[in-house]
Amino acid sequence: MPRATVRVFPSPDAIGEHLAERLLARIETARASGARFVLGCPTGRTPRPTYGAMARRLAKKPQDLSRVVLVMMDEYLVRAGGEGFDYAPPDKPWSCHHFARAEIADCLNAGLAPAQRLPPESLWFPDPHHPDAYDASIAELGGIDFFILASGASDGHVAFNPPGSARGSRTRIIQLSEETRRDNLQTFPAFGALANVPSHGISVGIDTIASAKESAMIVWGSGKRLTLSRMQRAVRYEPDWPATVIHECRIGEILADTDAAEPPDAS
C-alpha cells in the first residue's frame, strides 16, 4: 500500500477549489457512463470550503447530481429509552442531519433544475438500530468512490473513531471521547457547553473508510499542525492516531494549507 502524499495549498479556500473541481469532474464522468457516484462526506468546519466551492461552481455551470449518493460519516445519538439510541433531533443546528441538508444538499441543489438535483433519498446516514446494514448497503452500491476525510485536532479521531479503534472496525455505535466532544463543541458553538455535547454517536469504521476507492484527508489551520505531523510520520494505520487510516486507502492524499504545514511547535 503506497504511503499517502501531502499537497500544500495557500489557504483552506484553495484546497476547497482544488477538490471541488476534482469531484465535479469525477461526478460528470460517472454520469456520462450511466453510473452512480458515491461520495463519503464529513460534517463540520474542515469540509466547508469544499462544499462551498462545489456550490459556487454549480451555480455558474450546472450539472446533473441526480445519480450522486452522499454517504455521511456519522451522527450524534440520544438515548431512546431502555438501552437503545435514536438520532439526535435533526432540527438542531449541530446535528449531522441538519448540516448535511442545509450546508451540503440544499447548497449544491440551489442552482440546479429539479431534474438535476441531488434527491433526498440519496442522503444516507447509518441507522443506530441496524449499524451493520450501512456497510452492506455501501457494498451493494459498489463501494464509496471518493471519501472526503477530516481529522480531529487533539487526538486524531476520524469520523467518531477514537484512538484505539481497530483497523478492521466497521460502522458501529461509539461512546465519544472527551477530546472528540471538545473538538465538536468548538465546531458547533450552538452546543453551548461540553455537557450538552452528546456522549454517543454512530460512525463508519476504520475499515469502512479504508475500503473507499479514493480518499483525501483535509487539514487546515494552525490547530491541525499536530495531526498533520502525526500523519506525515506514519507509514500505515496507527490505532493511537486514527487519521493515519489515510495510508491504508487505495488512493489517498493529504491536502493541507500552509498554516497546518508549519511545524507543530511553531508560533
Structural account:
By secondary structure, this protein is an alpha/beta fold. The chain has one domain (5-261): Rossmann fold. It is 32% helix and 19% strand. The chain has eight helices and eleven strands. The strands form two sheets. Strands 1-11-10-7-2-3-6 form a seven-stranded parallel sheet, sandwiched between helices. The protein has a four-stranded antiparallel sheet with strand order 5-4-9-8, with no helix packed on it. Strand 4 and strand 5 form a beta hairpin. Helix 1 crosses helix 2 and helix 2 (48-60) runs parallel beside helix 3. The longest helix is centred in the first third of the chain and has 21 residues, at 12-32. The radius of gyration is 17 Å and the shape is globular.
**How would a textbook summarize the main sheet?**
7 strands, parallel
Morphology: globular
Secondary-structure element order, as H and E? EHEHEEEHEHEEHEHEHEH
Indicate how many domains the architecture comprises.
1
Give the strand content.
Answer: 15-25%
Estimate the mean pLDDT confidence: 95
Specify the CATH class: Alpha Beta
**Which class best fits the helix and strand makeup?**
alpha/beta
Unreliable sequence segments: none
Tell me the number of helical segments per DSSP (H or I, 4 or more residues long): 8
